Amino acid sequence: MKNEDYFKNKTVLVLGLAVSGYNAALLLDQLGSKVIVNDFKDLSENEEAQILKAKGIEVISGGHPLDILDRSLDFIVKNPGIPYSNPLVKQAVNKKIKIVTEVELAYLISESPMIAITGTNGKTTTTMMIENLLNENRSKGKAYAVGNIGTPASLVAQESSVNDDLVMEVSSFQLMGVDKFHPSIAVITNIYSAHLDYHKTRDEYVNAKLAITENQTDSDYIVFNRDQEELTDLVTSTSAAKLVPFSRKKELGKGAYVKDKMIMFNGEEVMSTDKVLIPGEHNLENALAAVAVAKLKGIDNKDIEAAFGHFQGVKHRMQLVDTVDGRKFYNDSKATNSLATIHALEGFSDPVVLVAGGLDRQESLDDLIPLLKEHVKAVVTFGETKHQLAEVARKADISTIIVVDTVSEATRQAFGTSEKKDVILLSPACASWDQYANFEERGNDFIQTVQEIDQSVKGG
């Protein structure tokens, strides 16, 4: 690990336990910091909190007492999900206490080259594509997908070496808490409006995304979506890194693009677009970003093609779950906004029975109407937005609209109203928090129901 002395004898507040907070606390303790952990929830029965206490780490739970800030803190490691509107965080900002997230710790200690990926949509799929490409036929070291994808970056950074690569998915929440964070290759898949309940303004959200390139120099690279004029203007005007554009729509002089159904990089044919097995134009964009990174890292075209040949997608993101009685079931539970559902629908030529619904964020979903008209034969809605989405479907002149309460009911109804060669697509267009802890739980509910339907069909 690098910079181990940086943390010695520092007093650090880890705000919010969770997985990243727990690993950050262990790491800081190992490096010689005096660590205090604080979580709003009562942790008296929490196993991880007891492990920390056994190591002599102070754990304060059941609230966020402001007097913690009187401890002469050197910095705070904040759980990304805790907003800056939190009273303790606001007070820390007023006191000018440095606030970082766990990815900053990972950067400070990592000996491995770092590739960071952000964007409104496509982060996880692009991250997994890059990890697969960099590991194809690799003879030395390994690429690790870490960060917002689920594996704490600081946990892997403790063990990885100069021969490895950290392929880090970073959210806007995490990027608001970086200081020295400096990836050698940064990727911005796209930027749309999102998470305004957290960021309050679109400008704050966009600026958080652009923090990925803030510390880059002209020896680094920024890979970005050239099809978005706003993003192109922002990157070209703010980044000191070498510009590496990708485009699904334009032939470019440099970067990654499509020409005659071939993926090109800097004028060289890399592979056919048919080798990208997961459906959707948005996944072709993700593939272009991943190819650009692979070429910058010196990966051969044959290895790029081979890696895509066995990349079947990421669970809960346009995941082909099963084919039952001629119907293909796709799990796109990660589609927590209407734009992600639009991208999903664009990927299908067969008729779609759409399963959608979830948390009501008081946002219009009318932008789904054109895609519903073009691709969807029936809509089954669930959750808080079930009636809103049913009204959207009526505006799109969908003849079959079914309103139920749960994902399981919706999946069974979708199968019942479908025909052979139809696609049954869970792409909710809404967050999951009305009924589930996260989108993974929602997707797993869908998968389990599909398995039950399959068993029922085979049993009959």
From TrEMBL:
Reactions performed catalytically: UDP-N-acetyl-alpha-D-muramoyl-L-alanine + D-glutamate + ATP = UDP-N-acetyl-alpha-D-muramoyl-L-alanyl-D-glutamate + ADP + phosphate + H(+)
Mur ligase central domain segment(s): 117-294
Domain of life: Bacteria
Residues at which ATP binds: 119-125
GO cellular component, one term: cytoplasm
Keywords, alphabetical: ATP-binding, Cell cycle, Cell division, Cell shape, Cell wall biogenesis/degradation, Cytoplasm, Ligase, Nucleotide-binding, Peptidoglycan synthesis
A Pfam family hit: Mur_ligase_C
Subcellular localization(s) per the UniProt record: Cytoplasm
InterPro entries: Folylpolyglutamate_synth_CS, Mur-like_cat_sf, Mur_ligase_C, Mur_ligase_C_dom_sf, Mur_ligase_cen, MurD
Gene Ontology molecular function, alphabetical: ATP binding; tetrahydrofolylpolyglutamate synthase activity; UDP-N-acetylmuramoylalanine-D-glutamate ligase activity
Protein name in the entry: UDP-N-acetylmuramoylalanine--D-glutamate ligase
Organism name: Alkalibacterium putridalgicola
